[in-house]
Amino acid sequence: MRFVSASDYEQMSRKAAGVLAAQLLLKPDSVLGLATGSTPLGIYQNLIAWNREGMIDFSRAKSVNLDEYCGLSPEHDQSYAYYMRENLFSRVNIDPANTHIPNGLAEDAQAEGAAYDALIRSLGGADVQLLGIGHTGHIGFNEPAGEFIGPTHRVELNPKTIEANSRFFASMDDVPRYAVTMGVGSIMYAKKILLAASGADKADILYRSFFGPITPQVPASVLQLHRDVTVIADEAALSVIREKAPEALA
Ligand code: GLP
Q: Which of ligand 1's atoms lies nearest the C-alpha of 66?
């Protein structure tokens, strides 16, 4: 586990984008595991700029996204398919056919999950999986639960997550109650994990995820078992780790 500190959101975004850019430079046909939410927006802006400057090339890259809301079509402006098109795919030279997101409209969520995991396996897994972290400790949409769920599956969203994500919707009632998400097994299958976090509201959950017990009540804690995890976070998000486990940040 590596912790890379950044002074603020902008610097966190540049450093995390640097890891993804290096991945593409070293292996142009990389499989990038991508994430949504507010946190990765700055990362994607850096990648777009570097792609325009000719620094990085997405023409042979492939991508797998973590999750999608159930019931939202890819045209819905709050779907993660729409988010990815708007914030990255339409602005870099990636082939849309090489980008993959779970289908939130699938009738049979179990079959969709199995097909998505088969796709990830057929691509050889993500070379690097970008993650944010939710206030509940969720990764993708793996919410606190009684057990870790390995495969891609349909999940009922936690009330805290619905509240946090309601800022993107007209009202709380418009936030979908279910999502389809890579399971912790699908995420752990990635060769490398890159978790990005920003802001004081993530400081406590970041500490509990990496220095607390490994428990499905804190889904991100499973990452303690992955052999190649890099956490890039700004000082505000690292504040509890800096206070309680400063040696990790040396
Ligand atoms: C969302 C996504 C997660 C994301 C998290 C945090 O609901 N499903 O993949 O990491 O919540 O989002 P943010 O970066 O906006 O805090």
A: 9
Per-residue pLDDT tens for 137-176?
Answer: 999 999 999 999 999 999 999 998 899 999 999 999 999 9
Give 180's contacts (C-beta < 8 A, 6+ positions apart): 67, 68, 70, 102, 103, 104, 106, 109, 112, 113, 116, 141, 152, 153, 154, 155
Distance 134 CA to ligand 1 centre (A): 5
Ligand 1 center from residue 71 Cα (angstroms)? 18
What pTM did the predictor assign? 0.97
User: How much of the chain exceeds pLDDT 90, in percent?
Assistant: 98
| Residues within a 6 A CB radius of ligand 1 | 35-39, 66-67, 132-134, 140-141, 161, 165
The CATH code of the domain that includes 92 is 3.40.50.1360
Q: What is the DSSP string of 129-154?
A: EEE---TTS-BTTB-S-SS---S-EE
pLDDT digits (tens, 9 = 90+) for 175-211: 999 999 999 999 999 999 999 999 999 999 999 999 9
Measured by CA distance, the residue closest to atom 1 of ligand 1 is 37
pLDDT, one tens digit per residue, over 1-55 is 999 999 999 999 999 999 999 999 999 999 999 999 999 999 999 999 999 999 9
As for how many domains the chain has, the answer is 1
- Name the closest-CA residue to atom 3, ligand 1: 140
